UniProtKB/TrEMBL annotation:
Organism: Urbifossiella limnaea
Any Pfam family hit: Pribosyltran
Reaction(s) catalysed by this chain's protein: AMP + diphosphate = 5-phospho-alpha-D-ribose 1-diphosphate + adenine
Name of the featured protein: Adenine phosphoribosyltransferase
EC numbers: 2.4.2.7
Recorded name of the encoding gene: apt
Gene Ontology biological-process annotations: adenine salvage; AMP salvage; purine ribonucleoside salvage
Main location: cytoplasm
Length: 170
């Protein structure tokens, strides 16, 4: 399956100097989308996971079908002002700005092994913040799964001690 052909490069989005990896062609191809979810599910099938967590918005696109495939609870990590109940929060930097992620305080059970899922690993700021949220709640990060890793941005270095799985590396 040639996933590369379904990732569109958009230069200078959302800021000059950023080469944006647009996944919408892949999302529009059900065979390719299903293949990505199946590859992630196969990688974590025996990982004894307790939940899957993902940051909005693009992380949800992969985490939701994966949670259904692996029959696991899905935990949304959201930007400020979106979750209605009490939250833990964490501020972080990303390739083109800064942001804050929130998780409901009862989102993850103490001791749960949580898989974090996202479309892109760039600087690693988003995933590192997601990991902190899981750990604040008493869970552990069992792995971090991505469709795309932008290796030249060194995001893995911000995820020390976490298992990192990516289907495509640039
Ligand atoms: O490794 P990082 O430098 O943190 O960058 C990766 C993050 O950036 C993108 O999300 P973005 O915050 O642009 O939000 P979106 O999913 O709502 O488009 C992407 O979906 C990842 O979550
Ligand atoms: N270059 C990039 N392309 C797509 N999503 C991103 N998130 C952070 N950096 C990105």
């Amino acid at each position: 399956m040639d996933l590369n052909a379904l990732i569109r490069d958009v230069p200078d989005f959302p800021k000059p100097g950023v080469l944006f990896k647009d996944i919408t062609p892949l999302l529009a191809d059900p065979k390719a989308f299903g293949y990505v979810v199946a590859r992630m599910a196969a990688h974590y099938a025996k990982a004894s996971l307790g939940a899957i967590a993902a940051a909005e918005a693009r992380g949800f696109l992969f985490a939701a079908p994966l949670a259904l495939e692996l029959n696991l609870p899905l935990v949304p990590l959201r930007k400020p002002g979106k979750l209605p109940y009490k939250t833990h929060s964490f501020r972080y930097d990303l390739e083109y700005g800064s942001a804050e992620l929130h998780m409901h305080i009862d989102g993850v059970a103490a001791g749960a092994r949580v898989l974090l899922v996202d479309d892109v690993l760039a600087t690693g700021g988003t995933m590192a913040a997601a990991g902190k949220l899981i750990e604040q709640a008493g869970g552990t990060v069992a792995g971090c799964a991505f469709l795309i890793e932008l290796g030249f941005l060194g995001g893995r270095a911000h995820l020390p001690g976490y298992e990192v799985f990516s289907l495509l590396t640039y």
